[in-house]
From TrEMBL:
The keyword Nucleotide-binding applies. This is Ras-related protein Rab-34. Keywords: GTP-binding, Nucleotide-binding. The keyword RNA-binding does not apply.
Length: 179
């Protein structure tokens, strides 16, 4: 934390969410920021923004979160928000492995816009849709891809809320250390 006069400068970090259309990026933010979930799909147009305040060791810390659109026609707008990211979160749909195959490209594009390599996360969402017996397979594939990317792997569900809070706390904690 830095002080200038009596004004406290709150530390902050920038996070960008990327990944294919409909994988569940916006739903993750709706779960964490508002504790809501909606089964109806509403495409993100270009980019959305959220700000979340965390308290880490009694120090306020703001996470700026940019939720980009997966639709191809918004690619240019979305990509213009990649610069200056401290964290990149690439999301895939655990019930649709086609969305895992594009993760490397999403990550490379977002990382490539930054001069300092950001902290990287690979999130497998919609885990509630994966049958119990198939979950280990998803974790294996997710971990392998995460290793390739040098990212941390997080399986979550926005519908059930599984792991969502823990994932955000982890993001904030890692960003805080480098902030
Ligand atoms: P774009 O903004 O177009 O890039 O899509 P997005 O990645 O933001 O996807 P969005 O969060 O809008 O979710 C797409 C659809 O998947 C919606 O119908 C959601 O209700 C559904 N969905 C998202 N997360 C989950 C989840 O964890 N479980 C289940 N069962 N459905 C989910
Ligand atoms: Mg969206």
């Amino acid at each position: 934390t830095s002080f200038s006069g009596s004004k406290v400068q709150v530390r902050m970090a920038k996070t960008v969410f990327v990944g294919d259309v409909g994988v569940g990026k916006t739903s993750i933010l709706n779960r964490f920021c508002r504790d809501t979930f909606d089964d109806t799909y509403r495409a993100t147009i270009g980019v959305d923004y959220e700000m979340e305040r965390f308290w880490i060791l009694n120090v306020p810390f703001n996470l700026q979160i940019w939720d980009t659109a997966g639709q191809e026609r918004f690619k240019c707008i979305a990509a213009s928000y990649y610069r200056g990211s401290n964290i990149i979160v690439t999301v895939f749909d655990a019930s649709n492995l086609e969305s895992l195959s594009t993760c490397q490209r999403w990550m490379d594009d977002a990382v490539g816009a930054n001069s300092v390599v950001p902290i990287k996360f690979l999130v497998a969402t919609k885990m509630d849709l994966v049958p119990q017996g198939h979950q280990d397979k998803i974790h294996q594939l997710g971990l392998r891809m995460a290793n390739l990317m040098q990212a941390e792997y997080w399986p979550i569900s926005s519908k059930s809320g599984e792991n969502v809070e823990l994932f955000f706390r982890r993001m904030a904690a890692l960003a805080f250390e480098i902030g």
